[in-house]
Design brief:
The complex is a heterodimer of chains A (132) and B (359). Chain A contains 5 helices and 3 strands; from the N terminus they run αβββαααα. Chain A has 132 residues and is of the alpha+beta class. Chain A has one domain: Sufe protein. Chain: A (Alpha-Beta Complex), CATH 3.90.1010. In chain A, helix 2 crosses helix 5 and helix 4 packs across helix 5. The model of chain A has no long low-confidence stretch (mean pLDDT 89). Chain B has 2 domains: 210 residues, Aspartate Aminotransferase, domain 2 (3-Layer(aba) Sandwich), CATH 3.40.640.10; 126 residues, Aspartate Aminotransferase, domain 1. Chain B is 43% helix and 14% strand. Classes of the chains: A alpha+beta (132), B alpha/beta (359).
Chain lengths: 132, 359
């Protein structure tokens, strides 16, 4: 936990929670993408879906949706920032720890949220490679 | 700040603060001691005992003080170690977990059914259970933590053998509770090694805490708080419920309203496709304080067992928010919630992976 702060999460987590980057607002069809990946399930309280647009082997654009807690929203937002512009190989190398570092550390019991986003991206990239 | 988490805890009443300060300064002596300061401290403790006895229609001797509702619950369950213990699925973890660890097959059986649940506010069929228990020579305990001060209580009319109370849910301090033990009911102390509470609970009396509890109980009695809850607080709760259903698509209530159905101060609602912890924290950022049955909020992996028992639907449980009122709230608080909540839910629904099914 972040002792001494007035919020449960770090300022960076709060910023990504309050102002998430790259999320897909409303109808999914509005974003023309090349592949998607989805992990988690609402029964467990967390589900994430990644939408990627690929050009010249790079993630040209990325969007996401999530049903989840503040950490889930913040970590998916952070992941989308980290992945944007990266080659598919480099994007696959983004680890849950990278997301956690970027956000200035999630509470330990929230770490699984960043793993979920990372798995959704991996799945989207695999789906893209299978379809290409 | 719009504080709507009173069922979790609330601020100390000024009367309780004054009583605790007085006790710290004047009644600090060991209440078990025979000297005059000790005797004066014991008098403060007995005042609280008599007040609680009067409020719940018990004999003062049938009440002991504890460190809180969890200890009171644990004490009763442990008394029936090795016996059959039947609890409602809505009980607090201090009942459910203790029963799981200690129950056996011996008779008589202990039933533990709370009067009203803390997360959804709904009443349990306590009288029916008490009747059934006593017909078979069994015993019944009820956790009255949420009910005290919100509704008139009578342990004799409810036909209870044991009942649990907590100070901090009624404007008293955290760390003080009480247990009603009907005269003649079996009892085993949880804390052994002292003659305090007539050998029913060892450890030096917490005079300041009990004095604070007493001041809160006096406040309940003098203001007949259950009447304020029945009128003003009920009106706030019902208005919020009505407006949530009317103004937020995909909303549903987990609390059945009505005088016969639930406490007047608790409203639990779910918001389809929006996750509870996110709702809670977006509200928090707007200065609105509520709680949620979502797993994420507790650090657990499972959502609230109460919401699961009530709805049988994990998604509904994960998407639940509890609003709990006190007489300190006003219609302005309802307005503030309704100024922010619909926008928060709409946004979460629009970024959700789940599509909202209902209109």
């Amino acid at each position: 936990m972040n002792e001494g702060q007035d919020w449960i999460y770090t300022d960076i987590v709060k910023d990504h929670f309050m102002n998430p980057r790259n999320f897909l607002f409303g109808d999914e069809k509005k974003f023309k993408c090349d592949a998607t990946g989805i992990v988690g399930n609402p029964i467990c309280g967390d589900q994430m879906k990644m939408f990627i647009k690929v050009k010249d082997g790079k993630i040209e654009d990325i969007r996401w949706k999530t049903y989840g807690c503040a950490s889930a929203i913040a970590s998916t937002s952070a992941l989308s920032e980290l992945a944007k512009g990266k080659t598919l190989d480099d994007a696959l190398k983004i680890s849950a720890k990278d997301i956690d570092d970027y956000l200035g550390n999630l509470p330990k019991h929230k770490f699984h949220c960043s793993i979920l986003g990372h798995d959704a991206l991996k799945q989207a990239i695999e789906n893209y490679r299978e379809s290409a | 700040m719009t504080y709507l988490d009173y069922a979790a805890t609330g601020p100390l009443l000024p009367e309780a603060i004054a009583a605790m300060r007085e006790a710290e300064q004047k009644f600090f002596a060991n209440a078990s001691a025979l000297h005059t300061p000790g005797h004066l401290a014991m008098n403060k403790i007995e005042e609280t005992r008599e007040l609680l006895a009067e409020l719940i229609n018990a004999d003062p001797e049938e009440i002991i003080f504890t460190s809180g509702a969890s200890e009171s619950n644990n004490t009763v369950i442990r008394t029936f170690e090795g016996h059959e213990i039947i609890t409602s699925p809505l009980e607090h973890h201090s009942v459910i977990e203790a029963a799981k660890a200690l129950k056996g097959k011996k008779k008589p059986t202990l039933y533990s059914y709370m009067f009203a649940n803390n997360e959804i506010g709904e009443f349990l069929p306590l009288k029916d259970i008490a009747k059934k228990a006593h017909e078979n020579g069994d015993f019944i305990h009820s956790d009255l933590t949420q009910a005290l001060g919100k509704i008139p209580l009578d342990v004799k009319a409810l036909d209870l053998d044991y009942a649990t109370f907590s100070a901090h849910k009624v404007g008293g301090p955290v760390g003080v509770g009480a247990l009603y033990i009907r005269k003649g009911a079996p009892f085993k102390p949880l804390i052994i090694g002292g003659n305090q509470e007539k050998h029913r609970r060892g450890t030096t009396y917490n005079t300041p805490g009990i004095a604070g509890f007493g001041a809160a109980l006096k406040y309940l009695k003098d203001h007949k708080t259950w009447e304020i809850y029945d009128t003003k607080v009920r009106e706030l709760r019902d208005e919020l419920a009505k407006r949530i259903l009317a103004e937020i698509p995909g909303s549903s209530l987990n609390t059945e309203l009505g005088r016969e159905k639930s406490l007047p101060n608790i409203l639990n609602a779910s918001f389809e496709a929006a996750e509870g912890e996110s709702i809670q924290l977006y509200l928090d950022a707007e200065g609105i304080v509520v709680s949620t049955g979502s797993a994420c909020a507790s650090g657990d992996i499972k959502p609230s067992h109460v919401l699961m028992a009530k709805t049988g639907d994990a998604e509904v449980a994960h998407s639940s928010i509890r609003f709990s009122f006190s007489p300190d709230n006003s219609m302005e608080d309802v307005e503030k919630v309704m100024a922010k909540l619909p926008g928060i839910i709409d946004r979460l629904q629009k970024i959700s992976t789940i599509e909202r099914k209902t209109k």
